[in-house]
């Protein structure tokens, strides 16, 4: 009898994360500087933690409803009414989710039939591919090019669309690329989306982490396609709340949202009430903590990018948003995985091979600067010693 008789084909073939592969390898190198984690090194702001503790003390520990706590749904709706203007969001436009990852899954559950094609940029965040496959969808990868600032081009999107195309997933500000969607490129994409009547799942979890005076732009701000756009967001990055597992989906398409509420029954039933209360108070409360963290990220981006740019062959895309830097390493004439592995073993620095995010990521490396100044400087020093000075002893 085969040892796999009781294991599904999906489980056997589900894509393995290249990020996880680096963490597994790094277990044998405990002194390595970790620049893999896309996670704030800041604590959750005190007033948010206090809100969660008060909610527990007040007995908010029972079951909730599938769409989420009304207080948080109202906070999200009001946020988008303020920031987008000219809209009239209410609770029926908002679904609370277990972070952004579940938000993507619920979007797909609500719109996807087996055999439907989902356009997924390449390179992009790792979960989209596996989630599409899980639901019987057909991933269609569309390349992103450095010469276009890693922004999806309308002509490339249109080439990929077929009669089976149901949706496109986009992510701006982008992990792993650090690119931000411009209004001009967004409007060009909108014309293709409207022409072919496809849905958009727009992952915007880094919306508040944008640099050099740029402003976040969402496809949902374009009136002609706003009913086709499902915005996925999260409190993880904005408020340093990664472990709280709190996100949401917001859309003017109330029909799709209604079925999304229903599909939560199949995944988690409901979220913890006290966590959602803290989330509501995060959104409604003072935002100076968000801007303070953003300023630190911008400074740390410069620290990392400027340091790496002094190393011959390391060509950094200057991050526009998120806390990831994507680095062109093609001059070194080795695979992304081999290069990343060498940096771990010989320089003591954990990075992620660009190929973890798709075939177009080959020849690139991702590093995250959601880290202390000291760790960023140490990572740059170690990489420089290894690549420039040829120092091969243990860091």
TrEMBL record:
Keywords: Aminotransferase, Pyridoxal phosphate, Transferase. It comes from the Bacteria. Its EC number is 2.6.1.-. One of its GO terms (molecular function) is transaminase activity. Its cofactor is pyridoxal 5'-phosphate. Residues 33-383 form the Aminotransferase class I/classII large domain. GO terms for biological process: amino acid metabolic process. Belongs to the class-I pyridoxal-phosphate-dependent aminotransferase family. This is Aminotransferase. It comes from Sinanaerobacter chloroacetimidivorans.
